[in-house]
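Anyone up for a design puzzle?
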């Protein structure tokens, strides 16, 4: 048993990870061997479990994040078709700036851009001020969750936008890197979060215009 399956018999996590592996192996049949899929699933669980304070939905988050990671790995390896440019937003905790930017780009791009976000040191929960500020624009964050920065998501990106994550992001040739100097909204009052949201929104519209050219 790996560390991922130890200490949680009440949740039958081993059985859940096995089921997730089966489902993703079927989805990625012809692209990845089951062993590769299983490695990503168990590694993803370990990444999320190491930072989680609440494990109730950990299996479902593992399934979602492992699917995203495999998609990005396939894109980076040239094994899956590329239908849209991909943008990655990185901040320190992936509960503020990068989540706002990803949500706004998803909203304005209408599926024409693949969007990712990650944190160099992700935390467990997004503040209500972040979700409230986006809800005011009709953008729900019900499906968002903090994600650790992984190698394949950087390799799969065409544009990498950093926002206060320091030098944690690996640099690969052939990618466009942008660094946005934006204050951290975490812990700020709602009126300040709104200003940060609007600043990010202005930058997002400019980036989307460039990607559409």
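Challenge accepted. My sequence:
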């Amino acid at each position: 048993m790996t560390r991922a399956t130890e200490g949680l018999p009440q949740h039958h996590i081993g059985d859940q990870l096995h089921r997730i592996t089966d489902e993703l192996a079927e989805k990625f049949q012809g692209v990845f061997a089951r062993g590769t899929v299983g490695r990503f699933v168990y590694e993803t669980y370990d990444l999320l479990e190491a930072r989680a304070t609440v494990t109730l939905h950990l299996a479902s988050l593992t399934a979602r994040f492992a699917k995203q990671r495999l998609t990005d790995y396939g894109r980076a390896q040239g094994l899956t078709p590329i239908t849209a440019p991909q943008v990655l937003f990185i901040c320190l905790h992936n509960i503020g700036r990068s989540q706002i930017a990803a949500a706004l780009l998803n909203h304005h791009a209408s599926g024409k851009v693949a969007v990712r976000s990650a944190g160099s040191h992700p935390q467990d929960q997004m503040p209500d001020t972040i979700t409230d500020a986006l809800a005011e624009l009709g953008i729900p964050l019900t499906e968002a969750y903090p994600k650790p920065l992984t190698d394949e998501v950087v390799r799969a990106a065409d544009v990498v936008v950093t926002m206060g994550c320091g030098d944690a992001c690996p640099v690969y040739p052939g990618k466009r890197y942008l660094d946005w100097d934006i204050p951290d909204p975490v812990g700020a009052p709602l009126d300040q979060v709104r200003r940060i949201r609007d600043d990010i929104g202005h930058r997002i519209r400019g980036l989307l215009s460039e990607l559409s050219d």
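A detail worth pointing out: The longest strand covers residues 86-91.
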